[in-house]
Design goal:
17 helices; 3-stranded antiparallel β-sheet; 8-stranded parallel barrel
Length: 539
């Protein structure tokens, strides 16, 4: 797939694994990033920004493994972010080596406030760095993207000059970031139009946009940019990202899909053309949203556009009457167009492994033998407890099982006693990382509080629970419940997720998943401290 300087469609650049992961509490390990990257490829994104290779050994490994596994001949372009610094660019180039199509995305700030307070550099210095570092990136890959950070607050005349230098040095895409979510649609559209009119060599590069949602305007800004010539959109699943998040991929894609008759003329097409404006397989949207939500621990609000639980729900009698007569009265898109199918009985407790595996394939899950085996055991357990097992149940089971949380502590037993005239009491048994089984008990304000206090007594890692949420996957008293928790330790946030027909068990497992992430993060620090303790003191 070769991207042309003036494509007649929108290129979807997904930065869920880079900018999205910067959302507090959304940290992903390498295996989890790989799971999401595979799903992004199935979704049909053009470019996956897999990480910031220089940031850590974990980021480097994630970019490298995604490049190796997902960056195939028929897969997307794999990208790594890099500051306009030689070491960053070289780390990105090394991490990206296995990918068939690779891109280095380098950036430097251009607004006066960033130049003065962050970079402490002059405009001429930034111009020289841009030329030198884009050329350096070009020496490793053919596909180079350049971003003038905080472009929306930069002096337009200086911005034009920086972009001209970047393109002359070899940039094939120039990205215009609204880094702090400051601009409005009319301003952003004018900025893109000004770039097209005032950068002499702009026809040699694709104009991209990147924006944050601090004022709730990111998607609106991007759609205005499209009208003025932007042909790549940098976005994230569910709009996750720093602060208020990024422009949401699902909202952008479905806006361009539902309103294609409005946008077609901006691409030189007849208004009535049915040709899609993106390569996205929209039927993979809902599943991708759920996967990212589960693995990051970032819940999707019920009234979220496109993928929220209420997006296709109607309670008003007037609305219900209209929907029963004709869906078009109150629905502008079909729920099935994003992969949201009606719940249906698909498998039961007598179903075999082969039937289960076929259903996984139908649902779009391409799992290893080990993951299939783990998911099948969970499926049989759920099938014994539920009269009906739906597609949503299966998705919840699989999403729960394929999370690659480091299993340092493991829940062996959870037992609670509670009632309206009883003090909630919990007993838990955990297997420690050393293989020892420890049991403790505690009381609390409720059964979950008691379970968490008992777990904390065993694990003994200080933390603050900052979020606890429960949602039902399906209707009914025997529904699978999904629990998502977030906890804080010394300013860092860790999330955990689990699904089970027993909400107390799900709560315990979600908490352990988060604690395991926290414990794993502390291990390198413990090892360094232990090594330091063994060093002889010298003077």
């Amino acid at each position: 797939m070769t991207i042309q300087p003036n494509p007649d469609r929108i290129i979807i650049f997904d930065t869920t694994l880079r900018d999205g992961e910067q959302c507090p509490g959304a940290t992903l390990n390498v295996d989890e990033k790989l799971v999401i990257a595979r799903q992004l490829a199935r979704l049909g994104v053009d470019v996956i920004e897999a990480g910031f290779a220089i940031a850590s050994s974990g980021d480097f490994e994630a970019v490298h493994r995604i490049a190796q596994t997902v960056g195939t001949e028929d897969g997307p372009t794999i990208c790594s972010l890099a500051r306009a610094v030689k070491a960053d660019i070289e780390a990105a180039a090394n991490a990206l080596k296995p990918a068939v199509r690779k891109r280095i995305h380098t950036f430097i700030a251009t607004s006066d406030i960033h130049l003065q307070y962050k970079l402490k550099k002059t405009r001429p210095e930034v111009l020289d760095i841009t030329s030198e570092m884009v050329a350096h990136a070009k020496s490793f890959v053919d596909d180079v993207e350049f971003s003038p950070e905080d472009a929306a607050r930069s002096d337009p005349e200086f911005l034009y000059e920086v972009l001209e230098r970047a393109i002359a040095a070899g940039a094939t895409t120039v990205n215009i970031p609204d880094t702090v979510g400051y601009t409005t649609p009319s301003e952003f559209g004018a900025l893109i139009r000004g770039i097209k009119e005032n950068v002499p060599n702009i026809d040699q590069a694709i104009i991209s946009v990147h924006g944050h949602n601090d004022l709730g305007l990111a998607v609106a800004n991007f759609l205005e940019a499209v009208k003025n010539g932007a042909r790549q959109l940098e976005c994230t699943i569910n709009g996750i990202g720093e602060r208020a998040g990024n422009a949401a991929l699902e909202e952008l894609v479905m806006a361009l899909h539902v309103r294609r008759q409005f946008y077609n003329p901006f691409f030189g097409r007849p208004a009535e053309s049915e040709e899609p404006l993106t390569r996205i397989n929209t039927r993979e949207i809902y599943k991708t949203s759920r996967l990212v939500s589960n693995l990051t621990g970032m819940l999707v609000q019920p009234n979220k556009a496109i993928v929220g639980a209420n997006a296709f729900a109607h309670e008003s009698g007037i609305h219900q009457d209209g929907i029963l007569k004709n869906k078009l009265t109150y629905e502008i898109m079909d729920a099935q167009s994003i992969g949201l199918n009606d719940n249906q009985l698909v498998l039961g407790k007598h179903s075999g492994r082969h039937a289960f595996q076929n259903r996984l394939l139908e649902l779009g899950f391409d799992l290893s033998e080990d993951d299939i085996n783990k998911a099948f055991v969970r499926f049989k357990d759920v099938a014994d407890k539920k009269k009906e097992v739906t597609n949503w149940d299966i998705e919840a089971i699989v999403n729960d099982e394929i999370q690659q949380t480091p299993e340092l502590f493991r829940v062996e037993l959870v037992q609670v006693s509670c009632g309206n005239n009883a003090r909630p009491t919990a007993t838990v048994t955990l297997r420690t990382p050393q293989g020892e089984e420890l049991t403790d008990a505690a009381t609390g304000t409720g059964p979950v509080d008691a379970v968490y206090k008992a777990i904390n007594r065993v694990v003994n890692v200080p933390n603050e629970l900052i979020e606890f949420s429960v949602q039902s996957v399906t209707a009914g008293i025997d529904a699978i419940g999904e629990v998502t928790i977030r906890l804080r330790h010394e300013g860092r946030v860790f999330s955990g997720h689990s699904a089970n027909t027993d909400i107390i068990v799900a709560s315990a497992q979600a908490y352990i998943n988060a604690l395991n992430r926290l414990y794993a993060a502390l291990e390198p620090e413990r090892e360094k401290a232990a090594i330091a303790d063994r060093q002889p003191v010298t003077t």
